[in-house]
Amino acid sequence: MLTPKARGALSATVLEAMRTGSGEVAPSVTPESDEDAALALWALYELHYRGFEDVDDAMEWHPGLLTVRHRLEADLEQRLRGRWTPREPGPTTAAAVGEELLAFVEGHDGPSIARYVQTTAEAEQVLDLLRWRSVYHLKEADPTAWVVPRLDTVPKAALMELQFDEYGDGDPRRLHQHLWVRGMEAVGLRAEYGAYVDEAPVEVLEQNNAMSLFGLHRRWRGAALGHLAAFEATSSMPSRRMAQGLDRLGLSPTMIEYYTEHVEADAVHEQLAARAICGALVEAEPALRDDVLFGAFTCLDLEDRFAAQVLERWGAAA
Ligand SMILES: [Fe+2]
Ligand SMILES: [Fe+2]
Fold this sequence. Notes:
This protein is mostly helical. The protein has helices at residues 9-20, 34-46, 63-82, 94-106, 113-119, 123-137, 142-145, 153-166, 176-186, 202-216, 221-233, 236-248, 253-284, 289-313. Helix 2 (34-46) crosses helix 3 (63-82) and helix 12 runs antiparallel to helix 13. The structure holds fe (ii) ion (2 copies).
C-alpha cells in the first residue's frame, strides 16, 4: 500500500515526514479538522501493521513520529473518555462480569446499517459500505493480537481460542481477512490491503484508530477486550441481516459467505469474549472492570456514529 491522500495540513506534513524519512513534525502544525487528525493518526498506526511501500520500515519507531502520534492519541483518548460515564464499582467474578457485559450490549439500542441493508439498500449503497468496511476487515482481528502477550494464563488462553478462529483455525483459506478478500474480488471491488482508505469517512478512521489505541497500549488492555466483546456480541444477528440483504440484491455468494461465517462464529465468540476473556481478565485484575465497560461502550458508540452518518447519507431514517 502507498501512503493515503492527505486531508489537511497536519496529515500532509506527517505523510511527507514519513515518506522523506525526516520524521519531524513541528508542534506548530495542528490538525485542520477531525478528519485531518484521524487520517494522520491512522497512517502513523499503520506503520505498526504492514507499513507503506513508499515509507522506510524504520520510520515505525522514529521519535519525531512517536511524538506527534502521542499528541494525536491524547486528543482521541480525551474525546473517547469524555463520552463515557465511569461506573460504580460492581462484582468482579468472571460470571458476573460476563453477564454484565452481555446485558450492557443487549441494552444498547443504536441505528442499524444491517437492518437497512437487509430490507431496503440498493446495490451501489452496499458496495460503498463494503469499501468502507474493508479498512477494518482486511486486518480483522489484528488490533486485538497486540493484547495477547499482556495477559495472564486464563484470559490469554481464551483470547487465543477466539483469535485462532479469526485466523482460520490453521487453514489460510478460512482466515477471516481472506474470506473478505475473496468476497471483495467476487463483487468486483479491490481487495488489496488498504485499498479504500482514501474513501473512508472520518467515522471509519476513528473506529480503526480506537482499536489500535486500545491494542497498542498495555494500559488499555481492558478497553481492548471490552471492545472485542461488544464487537463480537453485535455481529451475529447483523451478519445474518447483511447476508440476507446481499442475497436480496443478487450479490456474489462468496461475499455472502463472509457474513454467514460470522453468524455462527460470532455467536460463539460473543460468549467467549464476554465470559471467558473479559470475565477472567477482570476476575484477575478487578481494577480493569471500568476499562472493559468503557471499551465496550466505545465500540458501540463509534458504530452508532458511523451508522448515523451512513443512514443519513443514504436518506434513510436512523
Ligand atoms: Fe471474524
Ligand atoms: Fe469473531
